[in-house]
Protein backbone atom coordinates (compact mmCIF):
# COMPACT_ATOMS: atom_id res chain seq x y z
CA UNK A 1 0.00 0.00 0.00
CA UNK A 2 2.82 2.37 0.88
CA UNK A 3 4.45 2.00 -2.53
CA UNK A 4 1.14 2.72 -4.27
CA UNK A 5 0.64 5.88 -2.22
CA UNK A 6 4.17 7.02 -3.02
CA UNK A 7 3.69 6.31 -6.70
CA UNK A 8 0.42 8.23 -6.73
CA UNK A 9 2.10 11.15 -4.97
CA UNK A 10 4.91 11.14 -7.53
CA UNK A 11 2.32 11.35 -10.29
CA UNK A 12 0.62 14.27 -8.62
CA UNK A 13 3.90 16.14 -8.26
CA UNK A 14 4.87 15.49 -11.88
CA UNK A 15 1.45 16.67 -13.02
CA UNK A 16 1.87 20.02 -11.28
CA UNK A 17 5.46 20.67 -12.32
CA UNK A 18 5.81 22.84 -15.40
CA UNK A 19 8.19 21.44 -17.97
CA UNK A 20 11.29 22.98 -19.48
CA UNK A 21 11.51 21.82 -23.07
CA UNK A 22 14.31 21.80 -25.64
CA UNK A 23 13.75 21.27 -29.36
CA UNK A 24 16.74 20.32 -31.49
CA UNK A 25 17.86 22.02 -34.68
CA UNK A 26 20.97 21.43 -36.76
CA UNK A 27 22.49 24.66 -38.03
CA UNK A 28 24.66 24.54 -41.15
CA UNK A 29 25.71 28.20 -41.11
CA UNK A 30 25.27 31.25 -38.88
CA UNK A 31 22.73 32.95 -41.13
CA UNK A 32 20.85 29.94 -42.44
CA UNK A 33 17.75 30.76 -44.44
CA UNK A 34 14.36 29.54 -43.30
CA UNK A 35 13.20 28.92 -46.86
CA UNK A 36 15.47 26.07 -47.97
CA UNK A 37 13.33 23.52 -46.10
CA UNK A 38 10.70 23.51 -43.42
CA UNK A 39 12.68 21.94 -40.57
CA UNK A 40 13.80 25.16 -38.84
CA UNK A 41 10.34 26.65 -39.23
CA UNK A 42 8.86 23.46 -37.79
CA UNK A 43 11.05 23.74 -34.69
CA UNK A 44 10.07 27.37 -34.13
CA UNK A 45 6.37 26.67 -34.65
CA UNK A 46 6.52 23.76 -32.21
CA UNK A 47 8.27 25.93 -29.63
CA UNK A 48 5.56 28.56 -30.03
CA UNK A 49 2.76 26.02 -29.61
CA UNK A 50 4.33 24.37 -26.57
CA UNK A 51 4.84 27.74 -24.93
CA UNK A 52 1.06 28.09 -24.95
CA UNK A 53 0.59 24.82 -23.02
CA UNK A 54 -0.35 25.29 -19.35
CA UNK A 55 2.09 22.55 -18.28
CA UNK A 56 5.12 24.16 -19.98
CA UNK A 57 7.45 26.60 -18.23
CA UNK A 58 9.83 27.35 -21.10
CA UNK A 59 10.98 26.27 -24.54
CA UNK A 60 14.42 26.65 -26.14
CA UNK A 61 15.88 25.65 -29.49
CA UNK A 62 18.93 23.43 -29.02
CA UNK A 63 21.58 23.42 -31.74
CA UNK A 64 23.35 20.06 -32.08
CA UNK A 65 26.07 21.16 -34.53
CA UNK A 66 29.24 23.19 -33.93
CA UNK A 67 27.93 26.26 -35.77
CA UNK A 68 28.00 29.24 -33.36
CA UNK A 69 24.74 30.88 -32.38
CA UNK A 70 24.72 34.57 -33.36
CA UNK A 71 22.26 37.35 -34.09
CA UNK A 72 22.60 36.48 -37.79
CA UNK A 73 19.96 33.79 -37.34
CA UNK A 74 16.70 34.65 -39.14
CA UNK A 75 14.52 34.52 -36.03
CA UNK A 76 14.13 36.56 -32.86
CA UNK A 77 16.47 35.07 -30.25
CA UNK A 78 14.55 36.74 -27.44
CA UNK A 79 11.27 35.28 -28.58
CA UNK A 80 12.78 31.89 -29.46
CA UNK A 81 15.94 31.41 -27.36
CA UNK A 82 18.55 29.27 -29.08
CA UNK A 83 21.35 27.55 -27.19
CA UNK A 84 23.93 24.81 -27.53
CA UNK A 85 23.30 21.33 -26.18
CA UNK A 86 25.99 21.94 -23.57
CA UNK A 87 24.05 24.95 -22.28
CA UNK A 88 20.70 23.14 -22.40
CA UNK A 89 21.47 19.69 -21.01
CA UNK A 90 21.09 20.56 -17.32
CA UNK A 91 18.11 22.86 -17.79
CA UNK A 92 15.51 20.80 -19.66
CA UNK A 93 13.02 18.14 -18.61
CA UNK A 94 12.13 17.07 -22.15
CA UNK A 95 14.29 17.10 -25.28
CA UNK A 96 12.36 16.85 -28.53
CA UNK A 97 14.71 15.67 -31.25
CA UNK A 98 13.42 17.34 -34.41
CA UNK A 99 16.10 18.92 -36.59
CA UNK A 100 19.32 17.65 -35.00
CA UNK A 101 20.31 14.32 -33.49
CA UNK A 102 22.07 13.70 -30.19
CA UNK A 103 24.53 10.85 -29.69
CA UNK A 104 24.51 7.93 -27.20
CA UNK A 105 26.56 9.84 -24.60
CA UNK A 106 24.20 12.81 -24.66
CA UNK A 107 21.24 10.44 -24.48
CA UNK A 108 22.68 8.69 -21.43
CA UNK A 109 23.36 12.03 -19.74
CA UNK A 110 19.75 13.15 -20.17
CA UNK A 111 18.41 9.79 -18.99
CA UNK A 112 20.55 9.91 -15.86
CA UNK A 113 19.05 13.32 -15.12
CA UNK A 114 15.53 11.93 -15.51
CA UNK A 115 14.79 13.87 -18.70
CA UNK A 116 12.51 12.47 -21.40
CA UNK A 117 13.55 12.14 -25.05
CA UNK A 118 11.04 12.43 -27.91
CA UNK A 119 11.60 11.78 -31.61
CA UNK A 120 9.54 14.31 -33.57
CA UNK A 121 9.15 13.02 -37.13
CA UNK A 122 8.23 15.49 -39.82
CA UNK A 123 10.01 14.03 -42.84
CA UNK A 124 9.29 11.24 -45.30
CA UNK A 125 12.11 9.12 -44.01
CA UNK A 126 10.96 5.89 -45.64
CA UNK A 127 10.98 7.56 -49.05
CA UNK A 128 14.38 9.15 -48.39
CA UNK A 129 15.85 5.81 -47.32
CA UNK A 130 14.36 4.00 -50.29
CA UNK A 131 15.69 6.51 -52.78
CA UNK A 132 19.13 6.67 -51.18
CA UNK A 133 19.43 2.91 -51.55
CA UNK A 134 17.90 2.42 -55.00
CA UNK A 135 19.36 5.46 -56.71
CA UNK A 136 22.76 5.73 -55.03
CA UNK A 137 21.94 8.96 -53.21
CA UNK A 138 23.96 8.59 -50.00
CA UNK A 139 22.26 10.11 -46.97
CA UNK A 140 23.30 8.26 -43.83
CA UNK A 141 25.99 5.75 -44.84
CA UNK A 142 27.24 2.73 -42.94
CA UNK A 143 27.71 4.63 -39.65
CA UNK A 144 23.99 5.14 -39.15
CA UNK A 145 22.99 5.70 -35.51
CA UNK A 146 19.35 5.01 -34.68
CA UNK A 147 18.57 6.00 -31.10
CA UNK A 148 16.53 3.26 -29.42
CA UNK A 149 15.92 5.06 -26.14
CA UNK A 150 13.17 7.44 -27.15
CA UNK A 151 10.38 7.75 -24.62
CA UNK A 152 7.93 8.56 -27.40
CA UNK A 153 7.72 9.09 -31.16
CA UNK A 154 5.59 11.98 -32.35
CA UNK A 155 4.88 12.28 -36.06
CA UNK A 156 2.93 14.82 -38.06
CA UNK A 157 -0.18 13.41 -39.78
CA UNK A 158 1.09 13.43 -43.35
CA UNK A 159 3.98 11.03 -42.67
CA UNK A 160 1.85 8.50 -40.81
CA UNK A 161 0.70 6.40 -43.74
CA UNK A 162 4.03 5.84 -45.42
CA UNK A 163 6.68 6.13 -42.68
CA UNK A 164 5.12 5.00 -39.38
CA UNK A 165 6.27 1.35 -39.67
CA UNK A 166 9.75 2.53 -40.64
CA UNK A 167 9.95 4.69 -37.51
CA UNK A 168 8.60 2.03 -35.19
CA UNK A 169 10.73 -0.92 -36.31
CA UNK A 170 14.04 0.95 -36.22
CA UNK A 171 13.38 2.99 -33.09
CA UNK A 172 11.61 0.18 -31.19
CA UNK A 173 8.90 2.47 -29.96
CA UNK A 174 5.25 3.10 -30.83
CA UNK A 175 4.65 6.22 -32.91
CA UNK A 176 1.62 8.46 -32.59
CA UNK A 177 0.18 11.26 -34.69
CA UNK A 178 0.43 14.79 -33.28
CA UNK A 179 -1.17 18.04 -34.48
CA UNK A 180 0.40 19.79 -37.44
CA UNK A 181 1.52 23.36 -36.70
CA UNK A 182 2.06 26.37 -38.94
CA UNK A 183 2.26 30.10 -38.40
CA UNK A 184 2.44 33.06 -40.81
CA UNK A 185 5.04 34.77 -38.61
CA UNK A 186 7.97 34.24 -41.02
CA UNK A 187 5.82 34.70 -44.10
CA UNK A 188 4.62 38.06 -42.75
CA UNK A 189 8.19 39.13 -41.99
CA UNK A 190 9.36 38.14 -45.45
CA UNK A 191 6.52 39.95 -47.23
CA UNK A 192 6.42 43.10 -45.11
CA UNK A 193 8.42 45.08 -47.66
CA UNK A 194 6.74 43.64 -50.75
CA UNK A 195 3.97 45.58 -52.53
CA UNK A 196 0.60 44.78 -50.89
CA UNK A 197 2.48 42.61 -48.40
CA UNK A 198 2.91 40.02 -51.11
CA UNK A 199 -0.80 39.19 -51.21
CA UNK A 200 -2.57 38.18 -54.41
CA UNK A 201 -3.73 41.07 -56.56
CA UNK A 202 -6.26 40.88 -59.40
CA UNK A 203 -4.69 41.13 -62.83
CA UNK A 204 -6.18 41.73 -66.25
CA UNK A 205 -5.31 39.54 -69.20
CA UNK A 206 -3.96 36.00 -69.49
CA UNK A 207 -2.77 34.29 -66.32
CA UNK A 208 0.71 33.16 -65.31
CA UNK A 209 0.68 29.60 -63.99
CA UNK A 210 3.41 28.54 -61.57
CA UNK A 211 4.51 25.00 -60.71
CA UNK A 212 6.83 25.12 -57.70
CA UNK A 213 7.44 21.51 -56.67
CA UNK A 214 10.88 20.82 -55.13
CA UNK A 215 11.64 18.03 -57.63
CA UNK A 216 14.02 16.32 -55.23
CA UNK A 217 11.99 13.14 -54.66
CA UNK A 218 8.83 11.41 -55.81
CA UNK A 219 6.42 12.94 -53.27
CA UNK A 220 6.36 16.38 -54.93
CA UNK A 221 7.33 16.33 -58.60
CA UNK A 222 6.37 18.74 -61.36
CA UNK A 223 5.19 16.31 -64.07
CA UNK A 224 1.47 16.16 -63.26
CA UNK A 225 1.16 19.91 -62.61
CA UNK A 226 2.67 20.56 -66.04
CA UNK A 227 0.12 18.17 -67.54
CA UNK A 228 -2.69 19.96 -65.71
CA UNK A 229 -1.39 23.24 -67.13
CA UNK A 230 -1.19 21.66 -70.57
CA UNK A 231 -4.83 20.52 -70.53
CA UNK A 232 -5.97 23.95 -69.34
CA UNK A 233 -3.90 25.57 -72.09
CA UNK A 234 -5.38 23.29 -74.77
CA UNK A 235 -8.87 24.37 -73.73
CA UNK A 236 -8.15 28.06 -73.08
CA UNK A 237 -4.89 29.08 -74.82
CA UNK A 238 -6.02 32.71 -74.86
CA UNK A 239 -6.34 32.74 -71.05
CA UNK A 240 -2.85 31.48 -70.19
CA UNK A 241 0.19 33.68 -70.71
CA UNK A 242 2.86 31.39 -69.36
CA UNK A 243 3.62 28.22 -67.40
CA UNK A 244 6.62 28.64 -65.07
CA UNK A 245 8.21 25.54 -63.57
CA UNK A 246 10.66 26.34 -60.79
CA UNK A 247 13.32 23.98 -59.40
CA UNK A 248 13.45 22.39 -62.86
CA UNK A 249 16.17 24.20 -64.77
CA UNK A 250 18.63 21.37 -64.20
CA UNK A 251 16.10 18.88 -65.58
CA UNK A 252 15.36 21.00 -68.64
CA UNK A 253 19.09 21.24 -69.40
CA UNK A 254 20.50 17.87 -68.39
CA UNK A 255 17.73 15.26 -68.37
CA UNK A 256 16.95 13.86 -71.83
CA UNK A 257 13.88 12.02 -70.57
CA UNK A 258 12.41 15.19 -69.07
CA UNK A 259 13.18 17.19 -72.21
CA UNK A 260 11.56 14.55 -74.42
CA UNK A 261 8.40 14.49 -72.32
CA UNK A 262 8.07 18.26 -72.14
CA UNK A 263 8.48 18.56 -75.89
CA UNK A 264 5.24 16.63 -76.33
CA UNK A 265 3.26 19.47 -74.76
CA UNK A 266 1.63 22.27 -76.77
CA UNK A 267 2.38 24.79 -74.03
CA UNK A 268 6.09 24.02 -74.48
CA UNK A 269 6.10 23.77 -78.26
CA UNK A 270 4.37 27.13 -78.52
CA UNK A 271 6.95 28.76 -76.24
CA UNK A 272 4.55 29.39 -73.37
CA UNK A 273 6.67 27.54 -70.81
CA UNK A 274 9.88 28.32 -68.93
CA UNK A 275 11.89 26.07 -66.64
CA UNK A 276 13.60 27.98 -63.88
CA UNK A 277 15.90 27.52 -60.89
CA UNK A 278 15.16 27.92 -57.20
CA UNK A 279 13.25 30.92 -55.84
CA UNK A 280 12.12 32.36 -52.56
CA UNK A 281 8.42 31.40 -52.45
CA UNK A 282 6.86 34.64 -51.11
CA UNK A 283 8.77 36.83 -53.56
CA UNK A 284 8.06 34.62 -56.57
CA UNK A 285 4.37 34.56 -55.74
CA UNK A 286 4.21 38.34 -55.40
CA UNK A 287 6.20 39.17 -58.52
CA UNK A 288 5.49 36.42 -61.03
CA UNK A 289 2.41 34.35 -60.16
CA UNK A 290 -1.35 34.37 -60.69
CA UNK A 291 -2.22 30.69 -60.13
CA UNK A 292 -0.23 27.91 -58.45
CA UNK A 293 -0.65 24.36 -59.75
CA UNK A 294 0.51 21.56 -57.49
CA UNK A 295 0.50 17.79 -57.05
CA UNK A 296 1.56 15.51 -54.22
CA UNK A 297 2.01 11.80 -53.70
CA UNK A 298 2.00 10.79 -50.00
CA UNK A 299 2.48 14.43 -48.94
CA UNK A 300 -1.08 15.62 -48.26
CA UNK A 301 -0.21 18.71 -46.19
CA UNK A 302 2.77 21.05 -46.13
CA UNK A 303 3.79 24.64 -45.45
CA UNK A 304 3.83 25.62 -49.11
CA UNK A 305 0.08 25.11 -49.50
CA UNK A 306 -0.61 27.21 -46.42
CA UNK A 307 1.71 30.01 -47.54
CA UNK A 308 0.03 30.21 -50.94
CA UNK A 309 -3.52 30.16 -49.57
CA UNK A 310 -2.82 32.54 -46.66
CA UNK A 311 -1.72 35.12 -49.23
CA UNK A 312 -4.91 34.68 -51.23
CA UNK A 313 -3.44 32.96 -54.30
CA UNK A 314 -5.47 30.29 -56.06
CA UNK A 315 -3.88 26.92 -55.32
CA UNK A 316 -4.90 23.99 -57.53
CA UNK A 317 -3.92 20.87 -55.60
CA UNK A 318 -4.77 17.28 -54.62
CA UNK A 319 -3.73 17.41 -50.94
CA UNK A 320 -6.26 15.31 -49.05
CA UNK A 321 -5.57 16.79 -45.59
CA UNK A 322 -6.63 20.28 -46.67
CA UNK A 323 -9.40 19.78 -49.21
CA UNK A 324 -11.10 22.92 -47.88
CA UNK A 325 -8.20 25.06 -49.08
CA UNK A 326 -7.68 26.37 -52.59
CA UNK A 327 -9.09 24.54 -55.62
CA UNK A 328 -8.97 20.84 -54.84
CA UNK A 329 -8.91 18.02 -57.41
CA UNK A 330 -8.92 14.32 -56.62
CA UNK A 331 -5.96 11.94 -56.70
CA UNK A 332 -4.11 12.06 -60.04
CA UNK A 333 -7.06 13.41 -62.01
CA UNK A 334 -5.27 15.95 -64.17
CA UNK A 335 -8.40 16.64 -66.24
CA UNK A 336 -10.22 17.69 -63.07
CA UNK A 337 -7.18 19.74 -62.09
CA UNK A 338 -7.33 21.56 -65.43
CA UNK A 339 -11.01 22.38 -64.83
CA UNK A 340 -10.07 23.90 -61.48
CA UNK A 341 -7.38 26.01 -63.18
CA UNK A 342 -9.98 27.36 -65.61
CA UNK A 343 -12.39 27.94 -62.71
CA UNK A 344 -9.73 29.98 -60.94
CA UNK A 345 -9.08 31.99 -64.11
CA UNK A 346 -12.77 32.78 -64.52
CA UNK A 347 -13.93 33.36 -60.94
CA UNK A 348 -11.08 34.00 -58.52
CA UNK A 349 -10.75 37.76 -58.84
CA UNK A 350 -14.46 38.33 -58.29
CA UNK A 351 -14.40 36.55 -54.94
CA UNK A 352 -10.92 37.48 -53.74
CA UNK A 353 -11.78 39.02 -50.36
CA UNK A 354 -14.11 36.15 -49.41
CA UNK A 355 -11.57 33.60 -50.62
CA UNK A 356 -8.70 35.03 -48.57
CA UNK A 357 -10.85 35.31 -45.43
CA UNK A 358 -12.07 31.73 -45.84
CA UNK A 359 -8.53 30.45 -46.38
CA UNK A 360 -7.23 32.11 -43.23
CA UNK A 361 -10.18 30.89 -41.20
CA UNK A 362 -9.54 27.31 -42.35
CA UNK A 363 -5.80 27.57 -41.70
CA UNK A 364 -6.44 28.77 -38.14
CA UNK A 365 -6.70 25.13 -37.00
CA UNK A 366 -2.94 24.83 -37.55
CA UNK A 367 -1.90 27.99 -35.69
CA UNK A 368 0.21 27.67 -32.52
CA UNK A 369 -2.42 29.38 -30.39
CA UNK A 370 -5.33 27.24 -31.59
CA UNK A 371 -7.02 26.01 -28.40
CA UNK A 372 -7.61 22.45 -29.61
CA UNK A 373 -4.05 22.14 -30.90
CA UNK A 374 -2.62 23.43 -27.60
CA UNK A 375 -4.76 20.98 -25.61
CA UNK A 376 -3.47 18.17 -27.78
CA UNK A 377 0.17 18.95 -27.04
CA UNK A 378 -0.47 19.52 -23.34
CA UNK A 379 -2.04 16.08 -23.18
CA UNK A 380 0.87 14.51 -25.05
CA UNK A 381 3.29 15.98 -22.52
CA UNK A 382 1.23 14.76 -19.57
CA UNK A 383 1.21 11.23 -21.03
CA UNK A 384 4.95 11.41 -21.73
CA UNK A 385 5.82 12.35 -18.17
CA UNK A 386 3.72 9.47 -16.82
CA UNK A 387 5.81 6.94 -18.78
CA UNK A 388 8.79 5.21 -17.16
CA UNK A 389 12.10 6.44 -18.54
CA UNK A 390 13.67 4.06 -21.05
Automatic annotation (TrEMBL):
<dbReference type="Pfam" id="PF10933">
    <property type="entry name" value="DUF2827"/>
</dbReference>
<protein>
    <recommendedName>
        <fullName>DUF2827 domain-containing protein</fullName>
    </recommendedName>
</protein>
<dbReference type="InterPro" id="IPR021234">
    <property type="entry name" value="DUF2827"/>
</dbReference>
